[in-house]
Amino acid sequence: MVNFLESLRRKNYPSFVGVTIFAVIVNPLWAVFDYYLEPDNWVLFLKFRLVTACIHIINLLIISKKKYRRYSLEGIWLLTVSIQVEIALMFPFLEDNLYPYTLGFTLPFIIVTIITSIPVAYTFSAFLVTVTAFVLAMYFRPDPLTTNEIVFLVFFISTSLGVGVFSSFLRYRIERKDYQTRRKLDELKSNFFANITHEFRTPLTLILGPVNSLLEQARDPVIREEYNLIKRNALRLQNLIDQLLDLARMEAGKLQLHAAPQDIVSLSREIFATFESHAIHRNIGLVFSSSCSNQAVYLDFEKYEKILTNLLINAFKFSDDGSEIRLSLSKTDSHVEVIVADEGIGISEDQMEHIFDRFYQGQTGNTRSYEGSGIGLALVKDLVELHHGRISVQSRPGHGAEFKVSFFTGRAHLSRDETARHGKTRHTIVDSLLTEPGVIESYTSDSSDLPRILVVEDNYDMQLYLQRFLGHDYEMLFAGDGAEGLAIAREKMPDLILCDVMMPVMDGFELCHQLKTDVKTSHIPLIMLTARGGVRDKLQGLESGADDYIKKPFSGKELKVRIKNLMTQRRRLQKKFASSVLVNPGELGIGRVDQAFLSNALHILEDNLDDPEFRVVKLAEALALSRGQLHRKFKALVNQSVSEFIRSYRLERATAFLNDKTHTVGEVAFRVGFNNLSYFSECFKKKYGVPPSEYPK
């Protein structure tokens, strides 16, 4: 029930603020009512109302402070009783307007009990105070009422106020039942998370244990790096599971604080130092400062470590190489402030209010600024508040962000259950939590005969895995976001693209759409590799033009087979063109953009068939492509150079004219754009095995 009351107190706080402000404004305005009904007493009554308004203002100012907000129920009780006593004080001075004021006497009580939901003990005690105040007011009247009048008025007031008490009782029961239902669901969810976590931990243990043993035995650097890849990502998964479990425990109210005196300065310096190797790797400066050499603060060691580690990881995530991250501590009269500041991209105003929301990643949809789960900062906020502390953030886009955490000194803010005698030891492995920045360097060679694959993926370890798995059979290119991938695809014209969906700057769906609607890149097969494996996501990927869609985790062998199949389909298309360029593009099973491109190219060639000067440059101009782009496009689609394609088209059209037997060889040669008969005969014989004079055999 204590937890339910705390929940009720938090829920009633906004109602308390609203009703109090309403009472402060409206109650003095009733002096107009007093002026017309009781002109001789209205000044006195106004004083009563102003005193009550002052009580309400003081009540609001006190309870609006964060540490007193838990007394919102008491604030509502005082608000109600003060108004009832105020009106009761007017009764001894009334002469002919007793009944209108009696009606007004019941109105505030009923309004408050209907608007708010407070326990019956509060409403019933307010009811008793109200009735007692009324009876005493009647007793002190200069002209006492008759017994029948008093009985009638008490009965009227009691029944009227009883409606409010009964309404409050019903709302209280509904609230409690709803709370119990939600608490049961929270317990079920917490138990589910606990069971799932246990089921995850067992296989993770069976992964990490053998991997550690294999690492100790491995001597080959390549094999050691592969084992480290497994270990690093298993530890990240373990950390993610722990954070999810902490959030579930927090929601269920089962995450307990075990605070003990800790030197927050040395502890913060120690945690900060664990980031040095990563900072050196990225050329990021680490600056630590403190206004005091040591300062004891009651902290839960493990939870404070998670708070500071997550804040620092967030700072690294949004910092550019060569920038600076600062950790500073300062002491005020009753608080110690821990500030983590970076020089990164900053946070926009519209994102600021959501920065501590669970699973929020700074962008909506499939585009995210940086890789992450959206759990870290939400967990930080919960853990800080568990310490009865505060967290705030200040930022401007392009000028970095500053997170400020404030902890109370002393232990007056802690209950006995929240303290512990001894702290715990550190256990977090920072290197496993930090995502490796950057992109694997691409090595390409124009003389290489290997097919070229572009990987667009923002996870460094996934890039590393694909490089090692596919690098022996393919020439590999890498991009860390969709925009970079689009630029590389247009420049390098890979034979195939593997891309993730959720990436910075431009997501995989948009990248696929851009590639497939651009005639320069529409022919490139694209496979989406993504953790989002829902039917809707798959349909969206295929609708955007993806040739295949593979859900993570995927089988390496399956990926190789799917790549091989797409490459084989491309070679079959090229073989069709090798046999004849006069095919219907609509029958080739290629995309609409490529069909339109080939149809347009064939129509242009047909329109300029008899022009011997119509060559590669003019075709490129007609198709609005550069000569290099046109060459790469034809090479990818039909495995022919542009000049070979033009010559093949002219020769195949020549066979049609020769089959008519109505034209001489010379006429046919000039009609298909050859102004040199001997050269025409040479090309024709090379392609069909016989000179044009003997065709058809």
TrEMBL record:
The modification 4-aspartylphosphate is found at residue 500. Residues 599-697 form the HTH araC/xylS-type domain. Its EC number is 2.7.13.3. Pfam families: HATPase_c, HisKA, HTH_18, Response_reg. Keywords: ATP-binding, DNA-binding, Kinase, Membrane, Nucleotide-binding, Phosphoprotein, Transcription, Transcription regulation, Transferase, Transmembrane, Transmembrane helix, Two-component regulatory system. It catalyses: ATP + protein L-histidine = ADP + protein N-phospho-L-histidine. SMART domains: HATPase_c, HisKA, HTH_ARAC, REC. The keyword Phosphoprotein applies. It is an enzyme of class 2 (transferase). Residues 452-567 form the Response regulatory domain. Residues 195-411 form the Histidine kinase domain. PANTHER family: HYBRID SIGNAL TRANSDUCTION HISTIDINE KINASE C (PTHR43547:SF2), TWO-COMPONENT HISTIDINE KINASE (PTHR43547). This is histidine kinase.
